[in-house]
Description:
Layout (H helix, E strand, L loop, with lengths): L6 H57 L2 H11 L11 E7 L4 E4 L15 E2 L2 E2 L10 E4 L5 E8 L5 E9 L8 H42 L6 H7 L6 H64 L3 H24 L13 H17 L3 E8 L7 H19 L4 E8 L3 E8 L6 H11 L7 H12 L3 E4 L11 E8 L2 H5 L1
Parallel strand pairs: 8-9
Antiparallel strand pairs: 1-2, 1-7, 3-4, 5-6, 6-7, 9-10, 10-12, 11-12
Amino acid sequence: MLPRLPYRIQIPLGLVLAVTLSVLLVSVVAAQISARSARLEIVSTVQRVIDLLVAQGKPLLAQDDTWRAFTLLRNTAALLPQTEKGQSRAALLDAQGRFLAGSDPMRLPTGEQALGVLINGRLLPSVSAATRPRTLTTPDGGMALIEPIRSDDDQVIGFVFAEVDAAAFAPDWAALSTPALIGAALAIIVLVPMGWLLGRRMAQPIAQTANCIAQIGHTDAAQLQALIPHVQDPELSRIAGAVRQLLIETSVAQANAQRALSAERLAAVGRITAAVAHEINNPLAGLITATRTLRLHGDSPDARERSLDLIERGLQQIRTMTTALLPQAKVEDRCLSLDDFTDVLTLARATASQHFVSISSELDQQAELCVPSTVFRQVMLNLLLNAIKAAGQSGQVHALLQTNTGKVTFMLCNTGDHLSNDDLQQRLQAEDSNDPHGFGLWICQEFAVRYGGGFSAAAPADIPSPFASCLSFWLPNLVRHVEK
């Protein structure tokens, strides 16, 4: 709870807590010392009472004067601690260890055996074992003292017995805790206002610095530098200096980021321009060939019709692609047809003839197909042109269009160098920004991601002979959605 509070509150509370704990700790130690001193004082008092009874009781034991012994014990026992509460008592014993007289006749009855028997829950030593002073203690802290009384000829003529219960040694905790409570109260009264002022003074530059840090990125760095406080404390000065350095670096980083953003925008414009030029130039070569065919064989109705259809679909593809670049344009595309597959092969054969590359095709139609015609035509033409270049002079290219209820796949194989899937991914990453002439494969990957399809290179086991590489592009077949 305390770490969540601000410093101007933490500091006075911490001071009060520290002083209070210190006062309580000192009070506990003082109470322990006082309790130990009180016990030693009680033991010393009991010993003095025993010495007095030994001196005064010797003639009474010699005369066996019980009444005078009672009088002596009544007057002397008053010196013992807590006698009025029945927590201490004394007695004179005869030479056989029997009670001659006791300050508490109910608990120390006259004539009863004392030594060698259980008295008040404590087993006393025998007569022979009590010939020297003995001190007995109990687990609860009580104490009993036995001291022999000797005659002038050093014969044991009796004993002095004194007993103090554990309750007599218990310290007065209420009296001992009063100074601690008074000290804690005074500490709180004095230190709370002082701590509050000190905490506010210490926390003010920290709060100003934290406020500046919170505004980084939202306020001009030059303005924030003027708000950072100047302090004399070395640690706070280091923090303020670090924040100033951070603001300077932030200003530099913002300027660099702005320059990098401008450069990135120019690079993006360049990549888009290169991609558009690439995608427009691809069908133009075939369209030019179609116009030449129309000029040479325009008298034939069939040749004229095929050439015009090819030109119309190619121009429509260019129109759809350029319209898609407009942010507010709504592009409506038709489903791919088998004529589009034929158009792409026709457009690519013009380039293939220049490299003496033969193109073969295969159609595996297991279901109706419906994929965006402009996208799929663009991908098929890109892959065909790349495969023709990869096949090399007098190479071979094989195109397969396969459809089923789930997807439409276009696979293209060539006899050039082998291209693994890892090589393809590396080339795609390079073409994204570093190779303006390789946009064909990169655009195929972008279309696959955008339309939920896939683009990859076939594993060696899946490549038919005599080809070395196969690329596969597929999109989900939407014919089921169209039918609904």
